[in-house]
Design brief:
This protein is α+β, with helices and mostly antiparallel strands and about 650 residues long. Among the domains are: about 120 residues, Uridine Diphospho-n-acetylenolpyruvylglucosamine Reductase, domain 3 (2-Layer Sandwich); about 240 residues, Vanillyl-alcohol Oxidase, Chain A, domain 3 (3-Layer(aba) Sandwich), CATH 3.40.462. It is about 30% helix and about 20% strand. It is built from 20 helices and 26 strands. It has a seven-stranded antiparallel β-sheet with strand order 19-16-18-17-21-22-20. The radius of gyration is 26 Å and the shape is globular.
Length: about 650
């Protein structure tokens, strides 16, 4: 399609011209009955991986389908073509301004064009209705329902199964713009609008859905977002005026007892992008194998989790989740489904394993190594100051006794400790939630912790440890980890990877611990993981190099009252970046943070999240997505773009236009 032809077409897409096809030489209006979904079945063996395509992956948009629609004279079909002509695409990009096309812009689709898009999708397009809109009696959506609202409020903070089933709900409601929160939970919530949620969502149940969405977004310069479950701390899967691809319902799972890919021979699992941890862990258990995933029950394992690297309870023995990937099926910015593996599109394969989600393409599935069944011992305990005469001073001595042994627990023994320290009315509380020890029996775990517990006893710290032994990972995981929280607009979080060198001697141990201790004393909340994912043999991937030397992934948070004035909120928010997490940066100079659980305005995020891998990631991004079809806040390539509005003056507001810097 020539640039002039495209210009003529684009000039019409925002108007209300009728959509037509030709029948017996006559133009007739298009409706759902006049046009079939734009897809056909391709061979499942067309994948370059050894695992065949899933059925939903074999349902694709093809040139033949597009040619048939062109021969019918379907108006605007050019908007859904593949990007096969790079020169033409360059010409076309010059027609747009500095910003992504948004509602009200000349080239933003009309309602009739959205309708044609939905016909081509086979009725998979959803116009956004915020899931808290059921709590508003007089909203524009007209869907008030007290029973549904009560259910939502009862599950808002503590049941992530509920929002992950919604096409647009995200964890990071602060950065979304807080445009629709339940007013009974949040006194500051006065109205409900779409705001920073995408305007339309494609409920992707096959590859053709994804291809059509990418092609339309590329053709009209629409903001495109990719949402799986919406867990991300950084609001990567939402955005004002955007078209969203929801991969949550790509749920296929196939387990292979004997699989070969490159140098690997052994069991493997292929899972769709929408498969969540509880689903893939259960499937692995049924086949007597174990997979690497996170501790969160509802996280989509093959989506942003694994693309960001992915740490989990078995990282101490099998590394990061991305270390086990053998291949991906991915739809790239030109609209084509390709395989990425060590032998096929290897640069893209390198980038997707750790380079961050929503950036290089839309992953539809991954094949990952399956590891042998593993026994697990777990341990929980807690203690607090201000209870039974325990002073703050002794409390911190107990925590430091634990902190100083991290190399032994994680690097030497492959354990994974997940613990929380909070301020209480009487002092401070420590809670192990849990200590997770793969390949351990209870007796072996008791022996490992005996010196620590002896120190506790000598200090006068009383604990009641609870040990449990499991013959398999799945029941251990299921019994051990709490359901993750969701949707608090009055919190900001940041993180730091504390490297092994910070345990080199007593001086640096004390300096590091004191920085953490003081931050908890001042801010009252700290959650952390003692783990080690740097054992020899890990593959060369885009994973943050900081993960290979880290012994702690620490997360800090600040909180405020939702009814506080803006200045108070801003001061508290700023303190996270400028003081709380900065103390950790100061004791880990040149260090790193985890891209998926980080400060929303992390300084020098490029190197904090990817270190020495950044420059290569930029090159790969420019090769595979030269027109920035994909954008993820704080992702590779995002430094060329800027959201126009800011929350508190410095937090990019997803409820605003996205424009080039």
């Amino acid at each position: 399609m020539s640039a002039m032809r495209f210009f003529t077409l684009a000039a019409l897409v925002g108007t209300s011209f009728a959509q037509t096809i030709k029948v017996d030489g006559k133009d007739i209006p298009v409706d759902k009955s006049a046009i079939a979904p734009a897809s056909e079945a391709v061979s499942r063996s067309s994948s370059k991986a050894k695992a065949p395509l899933f059925l939903d992956e074999s349902t694709q948009l093809t040139d033949r389908v597009l040619n048939n629609l062109t021969s019918l004279g379907l108006s605007h079909i050019e908007l859904f073509e593949f990007d096969n002509d790079k020169e033409e695409t360059i010409q076309r990009r010059s027609l747009f301004g500095q910003c992504k096309t948004a509602p009200g812009d000349d080239y933003f689709p009309s309602d009739k064009l959205w309708a044609v898009f939905d016909y081509l999708l086979g009725d998979a397009l959803q116009k956004t209705v915020p899931y808290a809109s059921v709590c508003y009696e007089n909203s524009e959506f007209g869907n008030y329902n007290k029973a549904k609202c009560d259910y939502l409020m009862n599950n808002w903070f503590n049941n992530s199964y509920v929002p992950t089933e919604d096409p647009t709900a995200v964890n990071a409601v602060l950065y979304q713009g807080q445009s629709c929160l339940p007013p009974s939970l949040f006194a500051s919530a006065k109205s409900c609008t779409v705001g920073g949620y995408p305007l339309y969502t494609v409920d992707a149940t096959n590859v053709a859905h994804i291809q059509l969405a990418i092609n339309l977004a590329r053709s009209l310069n629409l903001r495109l977002v990719i949402k799986n479950t919406g867990h991300d701390f950084g609001a990567k899967s939402t955005g004002y005026g955007a078209l969203s691809i929801w991969t949550h319902n790509l749920k296929s799972i196939e387990v292979y007892e004997d699989y070969e890919e490159g140098d690997y021979k052994g069991p493997a699992v292929k899972a769709g992008a929408g498969v969540q941890a509880y689903e893939v862990y259960e499937a692995a258990k049924e086949h007597g194998v174990t997979l690497i995933g996170g501790e969160g029950q509802t996280v989509g394992v093959m989506g942003g989790f694994i693309q960001g690297g992915g740490h989990g309870p078995l990282s101490g023995i099998h590394g990061m989740a991305s270390d086990s990937v053998l291949s991906f099926e991915v739809v790239t910015a030109d609209g084509h489904l390709i395989t990425a593996s060590e032998s096929c599109n290897s640069d893209l394969f390198w980038a997707i394993r750790g380079g961050g989600g929503g950036t290089f393409g839309v992953v539809t599935s991954a094949v990952v190594k399956a590891h042998p069944k593993v026994a697990v011992a777990t341990l929980t305990f807690a203690f607090a100051s201000g209870v039974d005469g325990l002073t703050d001073e002794v409390f911190w001595k107990g925590v430091k006794a634990f902190w100083g042994r991290f190399p032994e627990y994680a690097k030497d023994n492959g354990n994974y400790e997940y613990f929380l320290i909070t301020e209480t009315e009487t002092g401070f509380s420590f809670s192990m939630q849990p200590w997770f020890a793969p390949k351990f029996t209870v007796e072996k775990l008791k022996k490992l912790v005996a010196p620590l517990f002896a120190d506790f006893e000598e200090l006068g710290i009383s604990i009641e440890p609870e040990y449990t032994e499991f013959d398999d990972f799945y029941p251990a995981w299921q019994a051990s980890f709490p359901l993750e929280g969701w949707g608090n607009p009055a919190i900001r979080q940041g993180s730091r990877l504390f490297p092994e060198e910070n345990w080199a001697n007593e001086t640096i141990i004390s300096k590091t611990f004191d920085a953490v201790k003081r931050s908890i004393e001042d801010y009252g909340w700290f959650i952390a993981f003692n783990l080690y994912a740097g054992h020899e043999g890990y593959p060369d991937t885009a994973v943050n190099p900081g993960w290979r030397t880290a012994l702690v992934h620490g997360i800090g948070a600040v909180f405020w009252d939702v009814t506080a004035d803006e200045e108070t909120k801003k001061n508290i928010s700023d303190s996270l970046t400028n003081d709380y997490i900065q103390r950790w940066r100061d004791v880990t100079p040149g260090g790193h943070a985890y891209c998926s659980e980080s400060d929303y305005i992390e300084p020098d995020f490029q190197h904090s999240f990817w270190g020495s891998n950044w420059e290569r990631l930029v090159e790969i991004k420019e090769k595979w997505d030269p027109y920035d079809v994909f954008y993820a806040t704080n992702g590779v390539g995002s430094d060329k773009w800027e959201l126009q509005d800011k929350i508190f003056g410095n937090l990019p507001n997803q409820n605003s236009k996205l424009c080039r810097v």
